[in-house]
Design brief:
Layout (H helix, E strand, L loop, with lengths): L1 E4 L6 E4 L3 E4 L2 E4 L4 H8 L8 E7 L4 E7 L7 E7 L2 E6 L11 E6 L6 E4 L4 E6 L4 E7 L8 E3 L19 H4 L4 H7 L5 H14 L1
Antiparallel strand pairs: 1-2, 2-10, 3-4, 5-12, 6-11, 6-13, 7-10, 7-12, 8-9, 8-11
């Protein structure tokens, strides 16, 4: 598995070396513990929930994040269609605060993205019936789930001209507005929570 560090501290792109394709179909392992541990020095978090979403072309989901603590980490790949999977550093005090990076994910290369605790997650569906699969370290608790505007001009994310957004994402605040309100996670708290997640696994 090839591992690439992204522009956001702690975020990774992971691409399996072997995709087995024959007349029966295809088999691939988008997550491999040994390679993840070799890249990070840690085991993956204990999975508390898995998510599966299907989106039509032009749908943008995010920028979503979890209040920290409790915080959560994610391991995401695209099982059908294709998407731009984007990690945004919203952790106040992070050496990469305000930066983002993008990985094109699809079932051709099966790149996966590791999102550390406290970062923002947004993806853009590039095709109809794009399926995204997630492993998450924490269960969904509505009051802990927050959103930022993917159309924040200061971030300049690569969005379609007319993104299809949920009502919540349409009215979400910008990064600067959320920082002013004190809603963003603290980088050092996120690092501490992340370490605890890996120690418990």
């Amino acid at each position: 598995m090839k591992v690439r560090e992204l522009a956001v501290a702690g975020a990774l792109e992971l691409t399996p070396d072997a995709i087995h394709d024959d007349d029966r179909g295809l088999f691939v392992s988008p997550f491999q513990e040994t390679h993840f541990r070799r890249a990070t020095g840690q085991r993956l978090f204990t999975v508390a929930q898995t998510n599966h979403s299907r989106s039509r072309r032009g749908v943008v989901r995010g920028i979503h994040f979890t209040v920290t603590p409790p915080g959560c980490a994610k391991y995401v790949y695209c099982a059908a269609g294709s998407a731009l999977d984007i990690v945004v550093d919203i952790r106040v005090g992070s050496p990469t605060f305000g930066r983002w990076d993008v990985v094109e994910v699809d079932p051709t290369y099966f790149r996966s993205v590791y999102f550390p605790v406290g970062v923002g997650h947004v993806f853009v569906a590039l095709e109809d019936n794009t399926v995204m699969s997630y492993m998450i370290s924490g269960e969904y608790v509505p009051e802990n789930e927050l959103a930022l505007s993917p159309r924040d001009p200061d971030l300049g994310l690569p969005l379609p001209a007319e993104p299809i957004l949920s009502p919540r994402d349409q009215i979400a605040p910008t990064l600067a507005e959320a920082e002013k309100q004190g809603w963003l996670p603290d980088y050092y708290e996120c690092v501490d929570v992340e370490e605890e997640l890996h120690e418990r696994s």
